[in-house]
Each structure stands twice: as structure tokens, then as C-alpha cells.
Batch of 2 targets.
Target 1
Amino acid sequence: MSSARELEDALAAVANPDQARELQRFFKTRKGQYGAGDVFIGVRVPEVRQIAKRFADLSPADLNDLLDSAVHEHRFAALAVMVAQFQAASKAGDEGERERLVEFYLSAMRRGRINNWDLVDSSAEYILGEYLYDKPRDQLARLAKSGIVWQRRIAILSTFAFIKHGDASTTLEVAEVLLEDQHDLIQKAVGWMLREVGKRVDRELLVGFIETNAKRMSRVTLGYATEHFEHSERVYYRSLN
């Protein structure tokens, strides 16, 4: 069986200090920024994913070690392995394993280990979202009211799984909770998910939501949500804001 240390060594072998400095700037790791204190060793996402594929059999204990690491790429790799394990369990129809992985994911979330936007975006819909598709989704509304930005982003990004199944209902419910959120990472995420509702589910559903809620939406959210509209339409909806 693979170990966390072996995965860490594999990442270290391709780490690039120059890349690390660039990533630390990109992910806003300075004091007072949303990623303050996060540590990068300089491995790009495609490389992290490729390496993670070799460690699909990591144990919960090893995954915990990686999630608790100060190194961003270690946490990303752990989540990539968890997504793969969840997808394998889904394919096998192993509901017990799916439930265990979701609880494991939520535990990592609660202790603050899914703590940057790429970590959320690469995992929320694939684990929590897929699990909740045919189950009650109340916890997403509760997460949307969290004081922790990453929990709020998990709430809205999890609904991407439902959108891909043709169901926009929960996206609109969670979006309404988050419409007046002041954090730009939430404003962007909400706008992105609304845009996907229009593209993948029902354009008129999106139009109706915007017309009802335009005055409550930030310019950022409205801009993302209408990104695929004609210029004249975007101008019109901005006039309602």
C-alpha cells in the first residue's frame, strides 16, 4: 500500500522554487489575504493530479496526514485521491464507502483543511455534491450561512453536481442566501453557478432569477452570471442592478 510520505516525496521531486513563489502570489498568501500563510512547493495542478493517480489506495490515516500538512499541494493531492476513491465507490455501488468519504470530507472541512478556492472547486461537487444529489440537501443552506468563506464556497460549488444532472433548484436556493455576500470569491462563485444554470439547465430560469434579484446582486455576480449574454442584454441587466 502507498504511503503519504511516498506521495510527498513524489511531489518534492518535481517541485520548483520559482513556481512556488508564483503560486504564493497567485493564491494570495500574504498577511491579510484570503490564503494567508499557505505554503507552496511549486507543483502545477496537472502534475499534482498525475502523481495523485498513483496513490489511489492511500489509507484514511495517510489522507489525514496529507490534509493536515501545511503544504498546499499535499492537501490538493489528498483531495484528488478522495475524489477518485469516491468515484470508484460510486461505480461499485458501495454506499457505505461513499458515506464514509463524505463524512471524512466534511471533517476535513470543519477543521479548516479545505482552505483555498482551488481545493474547494476540485472536490466539492465531486464528493459532497454527487453524494447529496438524491438526498436531502439542507446542510448546503446551513453551510451557505457559515462565517467561514470556504464553507460558503463549498455550499454553492457542491450544487454544480446537481446542475450537471439538470437540476438547478438547490443552486438558486443557495445563491439567494449568498447574494449579498461581500467576499469576492463568493460573488464570483455564485455568478459562475448561475451562469451554468443558464447554459446547462434553463436560460429562462436564469433570466427570471436575475430579474427578481438584480438589485441584491453585486456587479461581480451579475457580470459572471450574464457573461454569455449578448452585449445589449448585459447592458439591460446592469441597468436593473
Note: The domain at 137-241 is CATH 1.25.10.90 (Leucine-rich Repeat Variant).
Target 2
Amino acid sequence: MDLKDTKVVAPKSFWGETAKWGLYMGVLLGAVCVMQIGWMMFDVPWWINAFMYAVYIVFLYAGIVSWRKQRAGGYISYGQCMQFGVMQSVFAAVVYLLVWLIMALYIKPEYSGKMRDYVLKALRQSIDEEQLELALRSATFYTSAVFLAVSAFVGTVLSGTFVSLVVSIFLKRNRPISE
């Protein structure tokens, strides 16, 4: 093989690649958020959760494979896979957080109030009046748009980290000892 025939591809920036794949993933997760808040869904159906995990798996897999191909010889350690996957999840979570805040604060500000009513209705069926006062105060905090958005951010990062743990097992390619 002649060296003229080989194409040398300079690896792209780690941060640029994680941001790109995180943006892709975040946009799809944001679309789910738009659907959930737009349709006033309080009990999320199983298929939406399954779709969200499919998004995590597909985009983390695609992002890590893309990054691995750009590295020298296509080798990447388990730790590097994990680092890429977690950072990709953080970028996706930022996009998801922004979509949540825009939807819940500006487009559908009534979502938080209806969520609070939904939670209180469920609480009234399960606890007595004495405990309901305390539950009312905590429900106001836990159903606020900002708390729900921050919870979505943390949940996205944790879910992405978990999926990265598994995906990285299959995508790591250690450099052979003989090289």
C-alpha cells in the first residue's frame, strides 16, 4: 500500500464532537418534552420512556463510534468512551433543560399548576387531611417549572451516564500490545 493512497483525517475537537452529538440527542429529547408539556401529559406512557432510552442508546452509540473513528487508528479506551458519553449527555441535558424552561415558563405556563392539581388529587386519595397541609406546601415546590426542569436535567445526565456505562463496554477498542 502506498502512503499516497491513505487519507489522514485530523481528529476533531473533543468538545466540538460531544457538543454536536449532544445537540442532536437534546433536540430529540426536547421534542419529547414539547409533546409532554404541549399535550399536558402527567402520567408518561411506557412507550415514551422506551423511546427516550432508544434515543440515548442510538445517539450515544453513534457519537462514540464517530469519535472513535477520528482517533488514531480507531482505538479508544473504556474511560475515553465513558468520558465522551457523559459529556454528550451533559450537552443533551442542557438543550433539554432549555426546552423545558421555555415550554413550562413561556409557552405553557399553566402546565405547572395543572401538574400541582394532578399531584394533589392523587394525594387526597391516599392521605388524611392533617398530612394534606404539609403535602400541599411540598407539592408547590416539587411541581414548579424550575424544579421539574432541573429534575429533567439531572435525569438526562444520569440516564446518559448509565447508558454510557453499557455502550462503552461494546465500543472500546484497546490498542494492541504489539504496537
Note: Residues 14-171 form one domain.
